[in-house]
Design goal:
Layout lengths: L7 E6 L8 H15 L3 E7 L5 E2 L2 E6 L1 E4 L2 E7 L3 H10 L3 E5 L4 H12 L5 E4 L4 H7 L6 H12 L4 E4 L2 H9 L5 E3 L16 H6 L7 E6 L8 H10 L2 H4 L2 E6 L5 H10 L4 E3 L5 H10 L2 E4 L8 H8 L4 E4 L14 E4 L25 H4 L8 H19 L1 H15 L4 H18 L11 H27 L3 H4 L2
Parallel strand pairs: 1-2, 1-7, 2-4, 7-8, 8-9, 9-10, 11-12, 11-14, 12-13, 14-15, 15-16
Antiparallel strand pairs: 3-4, 5-6
Helix pairs in contact: 1-16, 2-17, 3-17, 4-5, 5-17, 8-14, 12-15
Length: 470
Amino acid sequence: MGSLDALKVAIITENFLPKVDGVTVTLAQLLEHLSARGVKAILLGPVSGMNEYAGCRIFGAFGFPLPAYPGLKINFIPPSFIRELQEFDPDVIHLIDPIWLGVQALTAIKILFPNIPLVTSQDTNLPTYATVFGFPYFRNRIWKISSYVHSFGQFTLVPSPSTASLLKAKGFVNIRICDRGVNPEWFSPALRNHALRRRWGLNSDDIAILSAGRVSPEKNLQLLIESSSLLSKDIRDHVVIVFVGDGPLTPRLRELCTTRDIRALFLGQLTGEALWKTFASADIMSSPSFTETFGQVTLEAMASGLPVAGLYAEGTVDLVTHLGTGLLLDVHAGDKTHPWKPYWPLDVNAQIATYDSCADLMRPSSTSFQVIARQYASLLELLISDHALRAEMGAAGLLVAQEYPWERCTDRILSTYMDALRTRTRAPHVASNSGLLRFFIHALIVGLSIFVAALSHLSYMIPTLTDLAC
């Protein structure tokens, strides 16, 4: 890639730091990489208290938290950002997970910058979250909104092959896979800390199962709790589940662990060295989610030398190899009655689990959930009881994680910016000279953007009889 000193990028995102997840971590890495490469950038995201990050000026959009998911907000584009965007005159605009703020921005972009290349990213499975949080009739509608907004981009970036397949099936086009990365200096087996394990109450022969990420319904953590309760008492007495992260299910999981006689630690949100040492000091990574687009914490656990006990599901299957770097459960096969062992190879025709395909199987009240929980317990038991297997799979996972440097991820995004520039010829933007006139124009554009976004959502979100039947 040639000199990038003259490149200017504007990024509009529905989420950013201090919220920590795979999307915000990736975006922070991108901003640092852009700064290191001499690329100028500005960012519009939710109000965060930050005005700058890695040399990138940040504009906060005021918003209201979603009652069902307080970590996400309904944000509104500020007129000051429109003014700054005109003065900045970007070469490329990047919309990340556009659903509300991104739709407003798209309207303003098409009015003010019709010739500027647009790149989009789909990093979060928002349609699935609608179902998880009790609004199943919105799922198909959100897919339609997402497909429509992303259709304006020259390219749509996704973090994994399984997510690319899902989006292609939903009608998305011009998809590029741009996976994520991990810093080997942060996440490393060398940071294993025996003093920390003693503070957790572990003896030398005890096992720590790590569960990291948002403690929320979409993570399917009840499967981990149910499976752990099915372990024999002799094994269960030597196991501690270490939960890293927070979320609305924390009180419920605490209660379940107490009533099921499961040893568990809830450490809350950790950052920096405390987080890295916690990962390295565990023994097994549990990944029971089937709504991941990538699995950032899974990759970080592999970089820390941990074997993974997970599901043969989207996101996880792109990182973890069954019998190689961990053990994966085919939940569709788990609903059958044929003989099964955790160390058997997966069926060559195994179907990757998605929310659409296995949500009913995972309902705690269903018979299939009990079968799946017993089989997942078998995966955990095999890893718990076999130190050599854990070491072998952990070492193999570490080698895989080394193939995911952040520079590869961020360079692919930069390459996409340059390719988008080559596909579009843009004319220089000419700004108005009158400050008062510009203020009214920006206010008008913001009002129109919010109106169009609201109208678009209403037109897509009014449920049909088919939606209500979901």
